[in-house]
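Hey, resending since the last one bounced:
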Amino acid sequence: MSRSKSTNSNNETAGQTRAEAALAQRLAEQNALHAIHMLTLANHDFAALASGGRAQAVEQSELDTLLTQSVEHIYSALRAITGARILLQVDASRHERGRSGSHQPLMSSPIRVMDAVRGALELHGDGYSDLISEDGVRSFLDAISAAIGTWIERREGIARLVVHEQAIASTQDQLAVIDRQLQLMVANQAYAEHVGVPLSELRGRQLLSLLRDPDEARETHEHV
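The structure tokens again:
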């Protein structure tokens, strides 16, 4: 009887240890994901980029910094995987962390910008331990790939927006650019004068709310 109780107690202790280790692994993944999300926000003020007229595409130094720090966070979260090696590539930028050598690729998550695949986040290693959830790791990597792709998309979108804004500002015609929710993204001085709203207050305004003539508002709504 005592031996049976001892065995049950050992099993319970081992089960509790595995559960705690699995929880710690998930917490490490969540912390890394949060850190990378903050990287995509910190020091990358998109409004400032637009107002500052920085029309260039994503600067290589910005992208390299994001990828280098992301790889460190990912590796820190997944180093419990035997022989873990993280490879992160976007366009011509390639960053890796972990043990060198020939390890089998365990999974890969594409990095998409708009509809194009611009790179991939790969995990190499000797295999998963019983403390690692393969589905959990895939969700973790997919979330990071999505965050990086979104960062690049927003950064390149701002660059295109600045070019459009400069072109629009140089014409005397009334011009404005709206998004799918009919919110103004860019307008020029001639359009601001037409609707009677200061140019600095136009960004983000609903198009239809600016049209004082009911017929013009109805006609605009029918054509957008």
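The first strand starts at residue 85 and ends at 90.

Sorry for the duplicate.
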